[in-house]
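OP here, attaching both records as promised.
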Amino acid sequence: MTTKKTSFLARPGLGLAIACGALFTALPAAAQGGGTYQQELAVCGHNQQDRAACVREAGAARQAARAGQLTSAPDYRANALARCGLHPPAERAECEARVTGAGNTTIDGSVMGGGLIRETVTTVPVEPAPQLQPAPQPQPFPRPMMPMPMPRQ
């Protein structure tokens, strides 16, 4: 009894099917990368950035994507919540509410304009004012003293 080991590449049909499958799965990713580049170029000139700088950055991003140097987008929410961890415990919950948009949080501004301003309005009940003591009645002025006569010399 003899056994023969055959590589999947030795079988022409199987090797060709695998190669074609890999090629077809790579095509949408390449097309998407080109589409992303075209989308980035379309934005150039319609934002507050210099057009030449925008085109350079889009080209650099395309080149980095081809080299596999781009990573997925960072988790901005987790980053913001981590920054809330630096606040004292009494203020931490309010910071997290602003970041997550809970409650009466409004967001104003833009990243291109310099940043987002997040504002949360919290209604705090007013503590009752302490009872004021009535003001004391003013004392009557003493009678004016009569001038004393000057001694004679």
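Record two, same layout:
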Amino acid sequence: MSDEDFKSFVRKELSDIRRDMAQMQQMTADLIRIVGNTNGMLEEVQQDVNVMKQDIGVMKRDIDVMKQDIDVMKRDIDVMKQDINVIKQDQKRMSDTQEEQGRVLEMLSYRSLAHDADIRDLRRVR
């Protein structure tokens, strides 16, 4: 190989190496840009996750408050059931009393009619 051929070969190889290096630099720049974009998206996702964690914390507190409210409601319902039973008992007692009073009034009414008849009979006899 002659000196001129060698120089031509070296120049061609250097040119190929420079071209390959330029491609590698471009690829490196593209990768850096992609990684930067990925980091930006990852930060957004992390922020979304943090917001979701806060929302979940608020929801857990709300659920705890709701559980307490439900417990209070259950106790209130138990009290209402007891009150309803008392009212039913009172209503039954009043109904029984009314029936008894109705029978007494009926008996008194019958006696009153009987006395009126006796009084009329006595007046006629005189």
